Amino acid sequence: MGDKEVIRLKDVFRHYHMGENIVKAIDGINITINEGEFVAVMGPSGSGKSTSMNLIGSLDMPTKGQIFLDEEDISQVTESDLAQIRGKKIGFIFQNFNLIPNLTVKENVMLPMMFQGEDIYKREQKAEELLDKVELLDRMDHYPNQISGGQMQRVAIARALANDPEVILADEPTGNLDTKTGERVMEFLQKLNDEGKTIIMVTHEPELAEAHAQIIYWLKDGKVEKSTKRKNGFKVVEQERRLIKKHSKKRKTPAKKKKGA
Ligand code: ADP
Ligand code: MG
């Protein structure tokens, strides 16, 4: 670990032209993420969290600005090289799992390795190893609709690990799971971080950010409103929790006065 930079966004903008209007999904962001960090991205709906994840994962390109992956400017890389880099360096986990329904659990995990040209024996062996890691080896021949949501997300974690990426991007990985199942998924993400993987996770749940992330980026209207580093556990995050409460009150009608207040 230490201070080796893995991802850097330098003055990044992502604007969408919608007829007469411009949607400023990302509006000038500077972020550096170092190797081995567990980063949480928080912010209200529409603040640009998913857009920033897609940019970081080079699924999307900025309208302006530069993105560096291992200090290499990805806008200078050809599309086919980029696909290769993306497949090798980055693993994705999505809120709705995105497993392929007509492939078995094991085949889903094998798929990204095929795009990297691994032979079938290696693919099978690695898929089983990874499914063992997420404790789903006994489900490898099931189809996604034959397992639970929490299990699907663990399959997605195994799939994300297929090409030994340095970085795992998770966009609300527990968003469709109940608290207990979500915690189990988080256990695995935490384990990966303990093993040295860089994790970047979008979440709406302050408890998860507080329990796992070392740094939280707060997005608002496509900008980083602020960032907080976890120093001594919960104290810092206590403040953020109050901030979230304050923000969510502002959006609603003014709070009622308590009786007797
Ligand atoms: P979040 O993940 O924080 O909820 P998003 O990154 O998905 O937010 O979206 C940020 C803003 O950009 C929103 O206003 C959204 O409507 C807009 N947006 C996202 N994707 C597109 C698109 N493909 N075309 C036009 N506008 C988009
Ligand atoms: Mg989103």
Short description:
The chain has 8 helices and 10 strands.
Question: Any overview of this molecule?
Answer:
The longest helix is centred in the C-terminal third of the chain and has 18 residues, at 234-251. 37% of the residues lie in helices and 26% in strands. The protein has helices spanning 49-56, 79-89, 105-115, 120-133, 149-160, 179-194, 206-212, 234-251, and strands spanning 5-18, 21-34, 38-42, 64-69, 72-73, 90-93, 167-171, 198-202, 215-220, 223-229. Residues 251-261 have low confidence and may be disordered. The protein is globular. 36% of the residues are buried. It has 261 residues and is α/β, with parallel strands linked by helices. The strands form two sheets. Strands 6-7-8-3-9-10 form a six-stranded mixed beta sheet, with helices on both faces. A four-stranded antiparallel beta sheet has the order 2-1-4-5, with helices on one face. The protein has a single domain, classed as Rossmann fold, CATH 3.40.50.300. A hairpin with a 2-residue loop joins β1 (5-18) and β2 (21-34). The termini are far apart. α3 (105-115) runs parallel beside α5 (149-160), α4 (120-133) crosses α5 and α7 runs antiparallel to α8 (234-251). The protein has eight helices and ten strands. Adenosine-5'-diphosphate binds next to β1, β2 and α1. The site of magnesium ion (MG) has 2 residues, from α1.
